[in-house]
Amino acid sequence: MKTKKHLRQAGGAVRYGTTRTRSDLFELLPDEIVITILSKLSSTASSPSDFVAVVVTCKRLNKLGVHPLVLSNAGTGTLAVGAKNWSDEAHRFLKWCVNAGNKEAYYTLGMIRFYCLQNRGSGASLMAKAAIKSHAPALYSLALIQFNGSGGTKSDKDLRAAVALCARAAYLGHVDALRELGHCLQDGYGVRKDVEEGRRLLVQANACELASILRAFNNTPSPSTASPSSAQRPNSGLRSLKDYRCDLPEKKLHPANRFLIEWFGLRGGVPGAGLRMCSDWRCGRPETRKNEFRRCSGCGMVNYCSRGCQAHDWRVHHKLECAPMEEWNHAIDDVEEEQEVAEDLTEEIEGDDDGIHV
Ligand SMILES: [Zn+2]
Ligand SMILES: [Zn+2]
Fold first, then answer.
1. Are 214 and 241 in contact (CB under 8 A)?
2. What domain range is 202 assigned to?
3. Which of 22, 27, 47, 185 is the most buried (most CB within 10 A)?
């Protein structure tokens, strides 16, 4: 009797002769097994739509798809809600995952609430819950909020708390946190100055980053390995790395950063009157008050939420375009001088012309 009831609930598929047996077998599967399969799916799906496409198939999957065990295992792909598709349903889905104790969901919804929806208290509290569960990006994000006094005034900065959060994130392998900590130790910023230890951490951060780039590079088919000539040479991967050093594979963006970038991109890259975005393209954090972020001391044209973003942007982009303001002033003076000379010459030529004609 129980099976017949489930068959009725399973919907249209059971009415067709050819699918009847398959549906029967599916209905005979215990809930625990279906939940295990759905948990595996939610932890590995590459996008929310991949997960949703399965759970909307029938009532049983729909019901078991929101089981706490399934939602607590949802991975970054399943939680990667796009800013373009932000809706009450998307918000509700993230809340369900939060209620199931999913630390990625704590962090993602925390970032969205703090920076995009400007619900600072709730956003920071969610990130703190992720941080308690040793979520490294959440620890690092909270450290930046403390370093910058985000969501408050300049006097709300708590450098000691920021360094402690950064140290915890660095211990868990977060490279930007490691770099930030290295700079703090070198400068004595929020912590007792230790230049030697700071330098050691910066070298370690560079080594970790290089290792992750090499790992990503070795997993990425390179143009040269596909070319006939490269097949004959050994270590072509390393040679490609050298050849394409301006086009190294980037670390995969966290969905929370991708959401922020997309959210503020849709608003013209302006988070509010007089507020600026972090100039590192992979960050997406906006200022929460005027002049919150540090400026590039070279050109004064770009702003960063952290040294991690500054160091990254410098390596991949800004060093090619940064020029001190004095140089710009000289360049402007040179152009003006050239224009003046050109105008003088034009006058002379015109004068000569007049002379010739007269
Ligand atoms: Zn940033
Ligand atoms: Zn600059």
1. yes
2. 134-221+240-252
3. 185
